[in-house]
């Protein structure tokens, strides 16, 4: 077999789209982490009986280094292939939304762009209520599924969980969600944007 590695340097959270075109009978490509562990299952491109075949796939990745492994067997992979890679920077501002003890503060009327990524972690935001009032949690979901847990002060249990489903999401459009919260003056509310578990659950959001 042959194995060729291509280094991908991702400057910030965003979408990496790979398109592979080949004239070989059987070619595979796999996304690897910097330590060469598999991030994705191998995807195959079959051109048997055709002049060429192609396959495309996208991953939402965090800032860092990755490898694209292109492989095949010499007996079935004689021919040529082309790999095209496109990157879309999500320009996120969630790098300080680290944990419940170190959240990023939200401001009324202002969206914060963020992203859930492969091998990423949950993002945490906070808001301190100044008056007894009803405020609205608003977020825009660009992926197929997004889940936000809401906590009040030091409670270990979420007071509610807001979910958003977008069937056939492409990552280019969003679904806007609204949820009302009766807030108490002096209380701090925490919003946990849970990182996805499946490829289609990763993507951009605004909260």
What layout of secondary structure does this protein have?
Layout: E1 2-10, E2 14-22, E3 26-32, E4 43-46, E5 53-61, E6 64-72, E7 81-89, E8 104-105, E9 113-116, E10 123-128, E11 133-141, E12 145-152, E13 160-165, E14 175-183, E15 188-193, E16 203-206
Parallel strand pairs: 8-10
Antiparallel strand pairs: 1-6, 2-5, 2-7, 3-4, 3-6, 9-16, 10-15, 11-14, 11-16, 12-13, 12-15
Features:
207 residues; mainly beta; five-stranded mixed β-sheet; four-stranded antiparallel β-sheet; 16 strands; 0% helix; 53% strand; elongated
Brief rundown of the structure:
The chain has 207 residues and is mainly β. It is 0% helix and 53% strand. Strand 12 (145-152) and strand 13 (160-165) form a beta hairpin.
Written account of the structure:
By secondary structure, the chain is mostly beta strands. Helix content is 0%, strand content 53%. The chain has no helices and 16 strands. It has strands at 2-10, 14-22, 26-32, 43-46, 53-61, 64-72, 81-89, 104-105, 113-116, 123-128, 133-141, 145-152, 160-165, 175-183, 188-193, 203-206. The strands form four sheets. The protein has a five-stranded mixed sheet, with no helix packed on it. Strands 1-6-3-4 form a four-stranded antiparallel sheet, with no helix packed on it. A four-stranded antiparallel sheet has the order 9-16-11-14, with no helix packed on it. A hairpin with a 7-residue loop joins strand 12 and strand 13 (160-165).
